[in-house]
Amino acid sequence: MESYLTAEISASAVTNNLTLLRGRLAPATKLCAAVKADCYGHGRQQILGLIAGKADCLAVATPEEAVAIRRLGYEIPVLMFFSACTYPDGAELRDALDELVSKRIILTVVNQREADRVSESAGRVGRTALVHLKVDTGMTRSGVLPDQAPPLIDNLRKLPGVKLEGIYTHFATADKAFTNRQLEILLDVIGKSGGRAGLTIHAANSAAAIDLPRSQLDMIRPGIAIYGYQPSDEMITRLPLRPALRLIGPLMQVKDVPAGSSTSYGLTYTFDRPSRIGLAPIGYGDGYLRCLSNKSAMRVRGRYAPVRGTICMDQTVIDLTDIPQASAGDEIEIISNDPAAINSVENLARLSGTIPYEITCRLGSRVRRKLVD
Ligand SMILES: *Cc1c(COP(=O)(O)O)cnc(C)c1O
Buried b / exposed e across 237-258, counting CB within 10 Å, b at 16+? Predict the structure, then answer.
């Protein structure tokens, strides 16, 4: 049985976006595509092959995500943004590291404990573990602080079974002055630790890769731009990215209600004229955020139908009064792939006070992902 909610994922849009990003790189600069969180909610099963064919490396967050790529049969380098040392010392950690090292997953390390555990795993597995060191240059999240980085780099270079292959950082903002400062701190650490030779140095997410070319270094790590959304409203350069996702479902029920009727939980919307309502088979249980209640709109027969009342777990009421031809079974465009539409990912993010990343990542398992064109 197939789900009636379908996220159409456009192959040509993803290809277009990757080509645009490539076009901004020097020929030797690599592209590491962030495919974490099920390709930002777009469906690993559907588009990983497409992305893997056009990237030099894939990036994930968790051991399960890393292993899933190998299970799907891809041999491409895979960088994990963490080391698996999130597990406490013990059998679970040993098993996870051994599987990752034997599957040639590149691990991120941020301290001596992680380095030691990875080295031990390499010994058990009988294979060199590839690692990148992450430096915290100002985001104040994960990574080693700059003053503690040079001794750690020194130790990593001596550690048996471990090959330090890269050093990187992550940017906290699209603000250029702050980003440039982070970049200087990274380059300073590397300067103090034997230089760039033999290492892959990387820093740029989508925003920096597009807007700050000097941050591209040896490799960029774009995510959101691959899927077709502008990484930030503050950017100066706006590439003609094409949103990859279009979410559709059938109109469930249509009915006429008298003026004065109030709709859905809490009766938060009252119709001031005789109205025709329709039901969309989607709710917050599918990732259609409840905070869009009374704010967003969907499209039926090419026209906007405003969302009325509170969004429920499995259904949402839309106003069809101005679309009199609408009838049950019609296609509802719940999320548009036109960036200028009211129901675009970017506008839904704006309306709900979040970012495009969260709109697509939240789409649930009741939504079928289907690759188109
Ligand atoms: C998710 C992530 C990226 C990709 O960021 P985008 O803003 O989606 O381009 C790059 N680097 C790290 C460390 C990340 O966690």
Answer: eebebbbbbbbbbebbebeeee
pLDDT score recorded for residue 236: 85
Give me the pLDDT at residue 11, please. Answer: 98
Q: Which atom of ligand 1 is nearest to the CA of 170?
A: 13
pLDDT in tens, 164-221: 999 999 999 988 999 999 999 999 999 999 999 999 999 999 999 999 999 999 999 9
Closest ligand 1 atom, CA of 357? Answer: 8
Nearest atom in ligand 1 to 206's CA:
9
Sorted by where each starts, the structural domains of the chain and their CATH numbers stand as: 11-227 (3.20.20.10), 245-372 (2.40.37.10)
User: Is 265 among the catalytic positions?
Assistant: yes
Quick check: CB of 242 below 6 Å from ligand 1? Answer: no
Is residue 295 flagged as an active site residue? no
Sequence-distant (≥ 6) Cβ neighbours of residue 220 within 8 angstroms: 21, 25, 29, 30, 31, 32, 202, 204, 205, 208, 209
The alpha carbon of 205 and the centre of ligand 1 are apart by a number of angstroms equal to: 5
Helices 11-22, 44-52: crossing angle, 10 deg rounding = 40
**Per-residue confidence band for 233, with pLDDT thresholds at 50, 70 and 90:** confident
Residues 320 and 125: their CA atoms lie apart, in Å, by 62
Q: What is the CA radius of gyration of the chain?
A: 24
**pLDDT band at residue 2, thresholds of 50, 70 and 90?**
confident
Report CA(302)–ligand 1 centroid distance (Å): 35
